[in-house]
Amino acid sequence: MTIDWQLLGFGDEGWGGVLLDAATVTVTVSLCAWLLGAVLGSVLCWMQIGGARWQQRLANGYITLFRGVPELLVIYLFYFGGRQVVSFVGEALGLQGPFDVNGFVAGAIAIGLISGAYQSGVFRGAFYAIPKGTLEAATVTGMGRLMLFRRMIVPQALRTALPGMGNQWQSVIKESALVSVTGLVETMNQISTASNSTQMPFFFYSAGAVIYLIITTCSDFVFRYVEKVAMRGQQRARL
Question: What mean pLDDT value characterizes the chain?
């Protein structure tokens, strides 16, 4: 089997340019989903730790639901089901169709909701890792709840949560491949198109694996560096 490496070039006959654009879309949709998951995870964590009983039950129900339902089903629900809901609302308001749901938005929201269920566990574990004596000492000195949260809880919890957040980012990157079912031209979608067009599935799917590996490896270096910087003060204190 001969391999034409020019197929990965950036010329008129190469797929390099469109694959690079698709990889950019993958990183962008993953970043939006991960950030949404971080926001939802922090809210769910607060509901579980400091919320009323109904808030704790609501958070636990949310986490159980999105941890138990397959990711692909959630994406289908938000994309295809979302189109049906938008069409129903538009027709009820007397608006002219056709009505559609953006694949990028639907995919980012679906993966973000799933990521939020997992990131809540990361944040909750990070909170319980804070020494109780630290919080008690801050309360004795007269810190209010807002100041305690901003100056004590957030800095210490984030240091502990960084590895888990990095793992969640890696998961979101891989889950973003499922967004291809919405028609969004991200890495997996473009790889499939190139494979079908050239009748070289092994070559292009291998190239896709390399693209994802490059993204996750670079991400791992970034999170390791951020974690090292965040823990620098604690390392000096131990010495």
Answer: 87
Longest dimension (CA), the chain: 74
How far, CA to CA in Å, does 10 sit from each of 3, 7, 39, 212?
16, 8, 38, 19
- 3-state SS, 100-113, equals CCCHHHHHHHHHHH
pLDDT tens-digit profile of 39-87?
999 999 999 988 889 999 999 999 999 999 999 999 999 998 888 888 8
Residue-wise pLDDT for 135-170, tens only, equals 777 777 777 777 777 777 888 888 889 999 999 999
Is the pTM here over 0.70, yes or no?
yes
Q: Walk me through the domains of the chain, giving residue ranges and CATH numbers.
A: 15-231 (1.10.3720.10)
* 9 phi/psi in degrees, rounded to 5: -75, 175
